[in-house]
Amino acid sequence: MTFVNLAPIVLFVYNRPWHTQQTVEALQKNKLASESELFIYSDDAKNDDARVSVDEVRKYIDNITGFKKITVIKRDKNWGLADSIIDGVTKIVNEYGKIIVLEDDLVTSPYFLKFMNEALEFYKDEKKIWHISGWNYPIETAGLNNVFLWRLMNCWGWATWANRWEYYEKDVYKTMQEFSKDDIKRFNLDGVEDFFGQVTANYEKKINTWAIFWYATIFKKNGLCLNPTQTFVENIGNDASGANCGKTDIFTSRLSSLNNIQFLSSIIENKISITNLKKFYKQNKKTIFKIIINKFKRIMKWK
Questions:
Q1: Which of 6, 58, 83, 301 has its CA 20 to 30 A from that of 264?
Q2: Spatial distance between the Cα atoms of 263 and 299, rounded to a whole number of angstroms
Q3: Is beta strand 158-161 parallel, antiparallel or unpaired with respect to 98-103?
Q4: Mind listing the pLDDT tens digit for each residue in 135-188?
Q5: Cα-flanking dihedrals φ and ψ of residue 226, to 5°?
């Protein structure tokens, strides 16, 4: 596929130098890196304890090469992850019409950018598809094609278009009011997982996150998300490198080396993938709960 304009890459970083370096080095090895624009949003330190590591990250990103153009945005105050992502994504996607988003603990396959750009181009006029994910759960893949569609939104390496993101809204009270009991059950994979609990936790100000509201926006618009069957992204954040970061490999699988993806013309949710995901959550429920709690602790330390 020939690209007229590649989607800009937006990377959000904070205070993890090693993770940031792994993320950038993997991205540099992508086939389209040298033709892509990279925007890096660096949040400022929350407190004196984070100052040294934030400055180390900033020193590193000032010297990155290997992309068509690099723009570094250094926040002059601590925005927190949620507000920084909402602001950065909105600004860049409105300027370019499409966007690829990464955080500082995501290692990508050399074919990640190719997959994301091809998917963005292939489905740009298919308004039922709202979100492209580069990551997939390590679920059973028998009976699945190269890609599939489902209601779930994964934010470990993702992409979208301006005319979808314009509907993004983080209105906690409104979301709580709009979701019926039936909505919540379907949102929660028919009761297998408590995704809506994240909305409630935001409402109660226990956490401050952004992604669950993107999922909620897509869900209420009856949108679908495109997933690769074999992941193009590995999350290296669950490596016990931080005080509140548990170690686990349940989300890890071999990175895809597929160069040519066969995209779908049938725009319907894949029932096999939903069934397999439910099985995954049931089998790993206790471990996943601990991971979610630890992730929220890290996010709240960022803010």
A1: 6
A2: 35
A3: antiparallel
A4: 999 999 999 999 999 999 999 999 999 999 999 999 999 999 999 999 999 999
A5: -90, 130
